[in-house]
Amino acid sequence: MKGTVGELGEFGLIRELTSRLTTTPAVRIGPGDDAAVVAAPDGRVVASTDLLLEGRHFRRDWSTAYDVGRKGAAQNLADIAAMGAVPTALLLGLVLPADLPVTWPTELMDGLRDECRAAGAAVVGGDVVRGDTITVAITALGDLRGLEPVTRGGARPGDVVAVTGWLGWSAAGHAVLSRGFRSPRAFVEAHRRPEPPYDAGPAAAALGATAMTDVSDGLVADLGHIADASEVRIDLRSAAIDVPTQMSDIGKAVGIDPMTWVLGGGEDHAIAATFPPDVKLPARWRVIGEVLPCAVARASAQPQVTVDGVPWAQAGWDHFSGIEDAQ
Amino acid sequence: MKGTVGELGEFGLIRELTSRLTTTPAVRIGPGDDAAVVAAPDGRVVASTDLLLEGRHFRRDWSTAYDVGRKGAAQNLADIAAMGAVPTALLLGLVLPADLPVTWPTELMDGLRDECRAAGAAVVGGDVVRGDTITVAITALGDLRGLEPVTRGGARPGDVVAVTGWLGWSAAGHAVLSRGFRSPRAFVEAHRRPEPPYDAGPAAAALGATAMTDVSDGLVADLGHIADASEVRIDLRSAAIDVPTQMSDIGKAVGIDPMTWVLGGGEDHAIAATFPPDVKLPARWRVIGEVLPCAVARASAQPQVTVDGVPWAQAGWDHFSGIEDAQ
């Protein structure tokens, strides 16, 4: 594809984008009508929406359009999985500058399509408009297959806290890229293209998970959301949390404690859940802590999540506080 | 609410926005978790997404935040109705500058909530991020209640073309505002806050509509989409299409043929549908034309929609062509 988005025009661009899509049996009506129609056999639909902005959530010199597509889809599809649902569909809103090469949105679409396929879903609709800042608005849908949704609010004192997926890899990759390096590849790739363990969400629901979330803001921050919604405390055991040797090495090289990445780094979209203490968890789950009762009437100053009994400072990202740069 | 979005911070803003929402029995899990859960009793879910950008789709000096909320919700909920479905839920992605007064997003949310309520739906989730251009990304969901979705592709030669709702009012209001006037109020209000006939969509499906769309790009353009998808032609009878006296008066005042607005103006979100010729339509529907077969192998030059048998020039908006300004 040659030329710019403006030269191709809205309808030409939509044709080009939709021509790249694949479908699934759940898609009853795909792109091109007033709305899409997607199977929701459970009788309930799970839905989540997220925005990615250039310069804020991705940089074109760090990530290809394809990677932005995979990452954008992944973070939404992981939200669906974290409710215990199976992803089914994705809708896309795109703001594009008129002078952007057409290859950018087409490669983005390839990435969205491939990540959807990895999760068993399909892109079913969207909207494109012209604007100054590339913006990718994604809504993901999913089906509960008869299981009850697992919220953040069901953790009970005595439950174990377990996690599956990668922790801190994206943040370590971000640290590498921030310093102008392009390797180690494994961490840079993890930053560009997270691999959420989609199937772990419905599996956790079937195992009786009492609360669940994906790790998008950082492990401590996201477990804080569970502690908050469940009105409990959570204590993590640092000895149960692995720091890979290669991550330690990067930490030494850049002067950062790698536990900062493991406990505070988001965007790997690991799945963290609480389970009753007697549950037999498959090997993919690492038990990393336990759920404790809140002391008396909880003072707001009391930390909800501790590590080996003591507060851990880093509190995750506030997307308006301005502390983070493009990730 | 005093202060700016940046001062309030992400979590404070989300609390403020979600505190304004109302719910419905279809909302099983609302905002605040990884994803929302919404009833989809039909076993299929209808979904559509749209973007509104400041300066392109709305202007803060022409429309209040409340009106932008109502209009943004309306254009998405109308897409759901135009498939023959009942709107159930809406998800919201918001890009906001840090220096924006908090009252803007809170009033936007009031507008979204109220328009959802008018359609029987509720806001169930969203995302807010900081950015330079106010951007409102909306995804609407709906339920078919056992009826088959009505696409754009089912019109057959011999069918009648009927419409319900307002035509050209928003475009006339836009013309008034473009010239620096604030009245006549009825047209300015129609531009700021369309009133789609939501219930007409499922009603048309129940009446046996063969094809349907909402009028968002303009009557001729949107019927062109039906003609294209159905591989038919459509001829409209100008005598069947009313131009209100007051609209004619504005046309004379600004030197524009008001039929330009009625046939070419979008954003009123009227519902246009085709029906078998023997259908008994309730009084709200105006029969304005008929569906004709395509002549032989359709030449691409052949107009798909004619008025009294002759082509009508205005082809609706191409959102990348740059011909339209902020609406």
From TrEMBL, chains A, B:
Residues 156-241 form the PurM-like C-terminal domain. Mg(2+) 2 binds at residues 50, 79. CDD domains: ThiL (cd02194). Residues 32-142 form the PurM-like N-terminal domain. InterPro entries: PurM-like_C_dom (IPR010918), PurM-like_C_sf (IPR036676), PurM-like_N (IPR016188), PurM-like_N_sf (IPR036921), ThiL-like (IPR006283). Mg(2+) 5 binds at residue 217. Mg(2+) 3 binds at residues 34, 79, 214. Mg(2+) 4 binds at residues 34, 48, 79. Substrate binds at residues 57, 267, 317. It catalyses: thiamine phosphate + ATP = thiamine diphosphate + ADP. Mg(2+) 1 binds at residues 49-50, 127. ATP binds at residues 126-127, 152, 216. Its EC number is 2.7.4.16. One of its GO terms (molecular function) is thiamine-phosphate kinase activity. Keywords: ATP-binding, Kinase, Magnesium, Metal-binding, Nucleotide-binding, Thiamine biosynthesis, Transferase. Pathway: Cofactor biosynthesis; thiamine diphosphate biosynthesis; thiamine diphosphate from thiamine phosphate: step 1/1. Catalyzes the ATP-dependent phosphorylation of thiamine-monophosphate (TMP) to form thiamine-pyrophosphate (TPP), the active form of vitamin B1. Reaction mechanism of ThiL seems to utilize a direct, inline transfer of the gamma-phosphate of ATP to TMP rather than a phosphorylated enzyme intermediate. HAMAP family: TMP_kinase (MF_02128). Belongs to the thiamine-monophosphate kinase family. This is Thiamine-monophosphate kinase. It comes from Streptomyces pathocidini.
